[in-house]
TrEMBL record:
InterPro entries, per the entry: ssDNA-bd_transcriptional_reg, Whirly
Species name: Bicosoecida sp. CB-2014
BP term (GO), one: defense response
Keyword Transit peptide: yes
Protein family membership: Belongs to the Whirly family.
Keyword annotations: Transit peptide
A GO molecular function held by the record: single-stranded DNA binding
Protein name as it appears in the record: Uncharacterized protein
Amino acid sequence: AAAAGGAGGPCASPSLASTAATKSPLDGAAAAAAAAPRRRFGARVYAQYAVFRPDCALMVRPAQPRLKRNESANGEYYSVAQQGSVLLEFARRVESTKSFDWSNKRIFGINATEIGTFAVTPPGQQITLERQVRSEDGSSYTPLKTLVVSPLSDMSGVRFSFETPDDAPEDASRWSVDVTNAEYFALKSLMFYSIPQLVGWNLALEPDHEAFPQWMMQRDDFGNGGGGGGYGS
């Protein structure tokens, strides 16, 4: 019986022994990584939804909220210093090329409440969102930029238009993007999904606050670039 089974006995498995002998040393590192605490936040992740048309492109992406570290008698806590927004970026095509001029793009930021406007506005009705500048004495407001979402005449989709008071009449179509109903559905679904993240509710339920990266914290140059474009963009 011993001769038939070899030195390892009748229960020995040559195939398993071979597998153990050739096991990669990286498996131990992988097991250690799997056992380590998982952190939900780390390096930035850039994601967007884009619609390209012959003359103009529309790119939609989220802008994270900014956090502030606070101290109280009950200990340390975080608050949302500025809510996030969904950024709509318009870029015109560079003449005689297939490229778009993103260096001169126009940006309109939509906050959580304005996203609600997209949810409650009946199909076929126009949506108009404005950004205004208040006069020094606070007695009047001047339009700065306007986002208009209007239904197409054949109801096959909607038109996103970015308007400013300084635009010439011929500029209106150059800063407009026609979006199909399917694209509009996808765009709105992404905006609706983002609301808890924009106001920080998902962070309030995060048990490991030490996982918050520094780029989510409030800065002195807050809102002047980088991941800016928040609530009032």
